[in-house]
Design brief:
With 367 residues, the protein is of the alpha/beta class. It is 50% helix and 10% strand.
Amino acid sequence: MNTLKKNLVELQQLAKERTVKTQSIEYDLETLVKKVNRKTIKLDPEYQRNHRWNAETSSKLIESLILNIPVPLVYLSQDVDVDDEADDLARYSVIDGQQRLTAIFNFMTNELVLEGMEVLKPLNGSRYKDLPPFLIRRLEERTIKCLRIDSTLDPQVKYDIFERLNSGSVKLEAQELRNAIYRGPFNKLIKDLAKHEDFRVLNQINMDNPDESKKVQKMEDVELVLRFFALQNNNYKNLKKGFKLFLSESMEEFNKLSEDEIQGLRDKFLKTMKVIRENFGDQAFAKYRFENEEFIKMSKFNAAVFDALAIAIVDSLDLDSPVFSKLNKVSFQELFKKEKFFDTVSGSVNDREKVSTRIDTVKELLK
């Protein structure tokens, strides 16, 4: 208690600084869509997840709105004060409610075709423009409650709110949450690199429709790029805590790098993926099982195989003029005959010993 009294002033100041100032407001859907269209409301701030709702989920929200069923509160961050002269900047960004607002915007701009409606089945197959006038009026006048967070709020608190909101709703995937919390140049880098052609092909992501991939929607592809940088340069030997924490701490540290260092990482990743694709093919990270004297492909992409091959190559070779002696597509595949190696890419693959063993095993082939 004495300690608490001594720290009372500090506690009061901290509580004052971290107190969230909010304002409740209701927008009708017509107004919300106009604000999004004018980019007054930014639907995809850097810390938000990708849009993950499919057409059926989005349609069910529209059905709820038409039937006047209550929907959850939308949290908006006021990034620019309404009196500031900043017409080229979004005044609000969405902290929580991006999926809902995107679904509403897509429908009311005729991008979404309704499907899977359970109560209003006759509307299945319809766009917004196809609705009868009375339903258009009903939707335009339907309101959604929003909680607007003050623009003077400490930026970090905004992300604290995002993290806490996430704990009470549909959980973000690990990399989606890192994207929300560890903002910076490295975060931008790995999101950009995840879109590169060589990596997407090796990751078995359809180049024609990448946004339909669950890996892309959940940012699993971005996490793989982070995984590459976190483990390279023999850093996998420093994996002591849980793998999720290891990746998060690595991301925080990489965000502190200079512009030149970030560029160096970019070059290293792109060269590595190019070397692998050219020498091992588009399914370089496939997993095999050796059975009855033949290799059976278990998957076209495996994250543990990705670790083993990519880290061994980036740590051991001159990427500008790589020399493959014993290591080639055939000899690498031969590793799957060995029970010890196969075990390292199966089961709990993020175990420290398994990570080290599989990477070191491939490195041995490079000597």
